[in-house]
Specification:
By secondary structure, this protein is of the alpha+beta class. It folds into 4 domains: 232 residues, Distorted Sandwich (Calcium-transporting ATPase, cytoplasmic transduction domain A), CATH 2.70.150.10; 291 residues, Calcium-transporting ATPase, transmembrane domain (Up-down Bundle); 161 residues, Rossmann fold (3-Layer(aba) Sandwich), CATH 3.40.50.1000; 194 residues, 3-Layer(aba) Sandwich (Calcium-transporting ATPase, cytoplasmic domain N), CATH 3.40.1110.10. It is 48% helix and 17% strand. Strands 10, 11, 14, 15, 16, 17, 18, 19 and 20 form a 9-stranded mixed beta sheet that branches. An 8-stranded mixed beta sheet has the order 8-26-25-24-9-21-23-22, with helices on both faces. Strands 1, 2, 3, 4, 5, 6 and 7 form a 7-stranded antiparallel beta sheet that branches. Strand 10 and strand 11 form a beta hairpin. Its EC number is 7.2.2.10. InterPro entries: ATPase_P-typ_cation-transptr_C, ATPase_P-typ_cation-transptr_N, ATPase_P-typ_cyto_dom_N, ATPase_P-typ_P_site, ATPase_P-typ_TM_dom_sf, ATPase_P-typ_transduc_dom_A_sf, ATPase_P-type_domA, HAD-like_sf. Keywords: ATP-binding, Calcium, Calcium transport, Cell membrane, Ion transport, Magnesium, Membrane, Metal-binding, Nucleotide-binding, Translocase, Transmembrane, Transmembrane helix, Transport. It comes from Anaerocolumna aminovalerica. It catalyses: Ca(2+)(in) + ATP + H2O = Ca(2+)(out) + ADP + phosphate + H(+).
Length: 913
Amino acid sequence: MMNWHCITKEEAEKTLQTSIDKGLSKKEVLKRQKKYGLNILAAKKKKNIIIKFFNQFADFMIITLICAALISFLVSLLHGELDFVDPIIILLIITLNAILGVLQETKAEKSLEALQKMSAPTAHVLRDGIITSVDAKELVPGDIIYLETGHFVPADGRLITATNLKVDEASLTGESHPVEKEADIVLKEDALLADRSNMVTATGIVTYGRGTAIVTATGMNTEVGHIAKLIMEDDTPMTPLQKRLASTGKALGIAALLICIVIFIIGILKNRPIFDMFMTSVSLAVAAIPEGLPAIVTIMLSLGVQRMAKKNAVIRKLPAVETLGSATVICSDKTGTLTQNKMTVTELASIHGKERPDSSYSQLLLTLTSLCNDSILQVTNKGKHSSVSATGEPTEKAFILAAYQCGILKPQLDLNNPRIHEIPFDSTRKLMTTVHREASGNIRSITKGAPDILIPKCTHVYQNGREIPMTQTHIKFMEKQNQSMAERALRVIAVAYKNISSSDITNYNPSKRSVSNLEFKKPLESGLILVGLIGMIDPPREEVAEAVLTCQMAGIKPVMITGDHVSTACAIAKELGIMGSGDLAMTGAELARIDNDTLVEQIHRYSVFARVSPEHKVRIVKAFQAREEVVAMTGDGVNDAPALKAADIGCAMGITGTDVAKNAADMILTDDNFATIVAAVKEGRGIYDNIKKAIHFLLSCNIGEIITIFVAILLGLPSPLLAVQLLWVNLVTDSLPAISLGVEPAAKDIMKKKPIPPNKGMFADGLVFKILFEGIMIGFLALLAFIIGIRVYDSQVITDPLLLHGNTVSIAAALVPNIGRTMSFAVLSLSQLFHSFNMRSEHSLTKIGLFSNIKLLLSFFVCGFLQVIVISFKPLANIFKVVPLNAAQWSVVLVLSFLPVVIVEIQKSMPKK
């Protein structure tokens, strides 16, 4: 293994056969990817499909059913009959269930893999002389990578440059503080991993500064790859909703088993055949327990997450889908989320007031801000036409584009005034400073930043080409200019400079073109000369005002959090409707002065938090949570990670967000748009509603099956359904219709309802009574079909007058109720299919339209067709022990099967109370 920290960066470049200036070629990258593989850690081996298949049988009720099939076969064998039909049918249905389970599991895995790809970390890399963004997994040894504040280090690398670079390597070395990095040093061979300051390692986080590095190792060859087994992720835990459903299913299962035991005992007391009662009871138990619920919920969540991804909301953690439906507060950044993130310079001001774009002041302001700037200007000439674009931070892009409009080209400025030192911008200082060597040989530092921070650091002001001492009059005038711009929703940046003598730099060497580690005798950000102010505006996104109104109708409070001036924030907030009459704004300074109890007591009155640092966000989140609010919080920076984790739903920006923010978040907004959060909340509510619909549907159907058997036995009637028929009904109704309810479009009025309280039970709002009522309704309709069948049609085959005029028990003993059982079987199945339409909405079907869920309609016809085939196709009819029905009998079946729609429609039309 090569000790890269022991050699110079030039030696590393030579050893890896790469170019610091151009990087690798695309051809060479492909060649090395074949040699070294992808830059990923080895994951746990996936279960093969056979293991997945057999895992489907590791369920108490499935094992019980297999036992029942074996007992059925053994009993028939002891009776001298080789009856394979029942056991084979039971095993076939179990196998079909297992196949469906494997398909569902595989689909869920693929969905998660797709989402992981969407939220995978990226790397900025130099290839063929062009800086490009690629998936981190595509990196190879020899690649030249660029590192900036907030980035994850994507692979191990030897540093080429390091400008104030600090990297958090705690996940690998245990070092609690970020490590300062240096590119130009060479270390001893025995230097510990934590002391290798000229190296960066995969999983590190850049907390400050920037740098470049040559990739020395990828994937399992990295330092973290050597201990990959220790950091491999465990299996995804169950979501809270899945746990609640598993608990509910268990309770229902116990209840169903008790009922089945009671049915079995009653059947024995009424002299029913023990074997038949055993098979009926076991089959009923399996049919009654909604063992498919967890799988159906997983499918619904998976489908919902895919829909949300298409709408620019990538869910990283499944519980976030559930939590979204309960959100009561959305705290959002202003820039880029509520606005277009297209900053445009609209006003320039000096000590004389507003300046024209072609004035000498404006020229100087735009020149200085173009130099103190990390953005890149790209001008493409195409014949007579040329196009211009900029890459970088939005504010800085606005400066260089405005300068370009005035004939000032940043690339030319950088060439004539090389940067020899810098203090990068950070949210604590709210300033950025660069030092340049001018063409004349003079050294000048340029500082830009927040006016309220920068102006107090100035001792002079630039006026008519002279640098005059700053007075209180100057300060008040500039503050007034700043206030005027801010009140018009402009973002204001102050610009200053100072000239530096080479004697004030201890290690300055004029012969070196670029120097990064200079030492200054005096602070760079003091004794400055103020030049003026630049005002910009970032217009609100067109769709946000409507999204804010939707939030407010949905009982969700939108809150703006920004680092901008309070006047700017309030102006935008009022325009968007976030700040209404009576709402207040709070600054970061005010927030710092009040205690937590006061903040909790008063926070509901505030809709805008301005001039706040990322650290303040955590306090804001916790204050809302202390009032039992469910908080969604947006963020993009490294310092936003604590707030994203503290929030109930952390939303990271997909475009401007750092890797650290994305890793801490529950959801990533790929378009950085506030309206996407609101759309995701709507989708989250819809998913929760659909899960409730599926539970409602399955439980009411299962109770219907229990009622049918239970009441028939109590009345002394023959068993309306055989074990194999019960299993078939369960298979048909638990599959396609239940899953199709998961794609039901969200109700049009779903965002006019209040948020779902997180502690609200799944069966609240009278759902238990609805389930019981509908279960009894389905059970009695199936039983009515059975009684009509045996009284009207089966009784026609009886010729004994005594039996014709006898009691129910006599009839039951005298005949095998083939037609009655077939009609009951058909009604139980078809009525549940019709009942699935009742589940679509609490409103009438006439209001929501029959064709708004095509998948449910298709599932109805597919399952209905299967049911008709089972009864009408003689080989299948023999297996399921049913007989073909004539037109009159089918008419009775269809009328009874359709009645649940009529009854529930009447119920929906009645007052809810």
